[in-house]
Amino acid sequence: MSEWLTLYVLSVLAALVLSAILVEATGGDWRPVVSALLDGSLRRPGRWGETLGTAAPMLLVATGTIVSGKAGLINIGQEGQLLVGAAFATYFGFLVGGPGPFNLIVIVVFGAVGGALWAGVAAVLKFWRNVPEVLSTLLLVAVGGQLVAYGLSQSWLLLAPLADRGNRNQVSPQLPKDNRLPRPEIFGNEIPLAVVISIVLAVVVSLVLARTVWGFRLRMLVSIRGPRSGPASRKPGTARPH
Hints:
Layout lengths: L1 H24 L4 H14 L3 H24 L7 H19 L3 H30 L3 H19 L33 E2 L2 E2 L2 H19 L1 H12 L18
Antiparallel strand pairs: 1-2
Helix pairs in contact: 1-2, 2-3, 3-7, 4-5, 4-6, 5-6, 7-8
């Protein structure tokens, strides 16, 4: 555990040092840049709560990436999957509606379904035509982004009514305050409940992968599966195994 913590601290320090070098190389002064970075993320009142809130979706995405990585699949299309999932969650959240707790469940479920369906496109290409998931997931990011952008241009899909937005703003309707996750205040910082959920989920996934039969089977997929699998990996004229 201490080795991983040391690695993360060194990574952050290395990123800061590299940023400072780049600023100096372009004729700037690294000191005010680093100071502004620390102020915006930690030092000013309420900032570290916002930083944690921004990091929570990244932790959720990273958790899903770890699961696919343990199975030997390299998924680099998380951005597109996140966008499509968010679009599904927004559309069906307003379509189904309901009181706050129920609507939050609807949003989470349809967000997961949307992301899974978009990832499923790459999965189908992988196991039907043996298209490398590295390539398909990466290219699907651009397609997913364009689809969501189209949805935000159409009022019958995601675009908010003109009365609720500026003329040039392409945004979706906003959830009522009672339909949002609570944001308890701790030491002057609003901490979204999503932070706690993402941490708990990451711990649960870690334990499942390390301590359960399902996690063991998932890890074993890397060793029992050949470098190429699916119909495209069989030579012409080779019979399908029974």
